[in-house]
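Something for you to look into today, if you have time. What I am after is a single protein written out in full by you. I want to see for myself how the chain folds. Could you add the entry underneath, on a fresh line?
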Amino acid sequence: MRTPGGKRIRQTAGTTDRKQAQELHDKIKHELWRFAKFGERPSRTFDEAALRFLQESAGEPDYANKVLHLRHFRRHFAGRELESLTRDEIFTALPTVNQRTREPRPISKATRNLYLSTIRVMLNTALKDWEWVERVPTLPAIPGNVKRIRWITRAEAQRLLEAISTDWMRDVAMLGFATGLRQANLLGLEWSQIDLVKRRAWIHADQAKARRPIGVPLNAEAVDVIRRQLGKHNTYVFTRKGEPVLKWDIGQWNRAVERAGIGHFRFHDVRHTWASWHVQSGTPLPRLMELGGWSKYENVLRYAHLAPDHLAPHADAVTIWAQDGSGSVDVAEIGPGYAEAAGGAPDRLSA
């Protein structure tokens, strides 16, 4: 289909019924004609936007989450004109309690922000790409509590690895500490992604969270872990009883963490630990950003405070006892009270 101005439009009808598809075609064509002739922008509903957005998002890693989020919002906005949605209505419609658990529990701010992100992207796409609306409400993220980066020492990591009783889980964790790869990338790692001779691996763009390929240099410990998996499976590096690992054993992981005497420590904290060790060892933040496959620099800035060594020279610019470089302190600069308390100290004190 083409607009009156000649622009080509591609859109699925969402049906296999030829008659219904033709009716939709004629409806859209009529609306486009009226827009070109009289400037009448066709009215679009939330349902139309949600359907098109999900059709265009098919195959993306977070597609299931988008379906879940938009299904929730549809209970509030079904049939509503897209341009009529307000910021207050959207925030009011956000879920507050998770009903899918055995016992309903409050939904975290982070999860609510995921719902916000989905509808924000959909509305902005309708505005900028589809030109369905002239304005959309501003939907800022809900401020969350600032959390400390959870990382452990090398001694604690050694205790944790010793506490893991299953070989494949221990090896996965060891490779995580050595490379900083995310759990999904570790469990889905294939032999075609590894070059042991040149000691490197790579994560393809469609496997990476940032949708960008990641080059992974392998240190000696990483190479040793991978070599132990040789001959176990033709495709996947890590296996469980000869089969690909489809799911992490969270129960066994938590028991190992407890046996190691470590406080709450998720598997994702292995990645935080790897990044923290890098910063403390002097790895520049831009290089860490490449190694970890982060798309935004602020994602690595959260580790910067762990290695303030480059600020040490500046710390000497402000001291309590003003020094003149001779190793002595001028009593006059300290104040007369100090001299009196010292019982009549000389004009200058040895530092």
Notes: The domain at 18-128 is CATH 1.10.150 (DNA polymerase; domain 1).
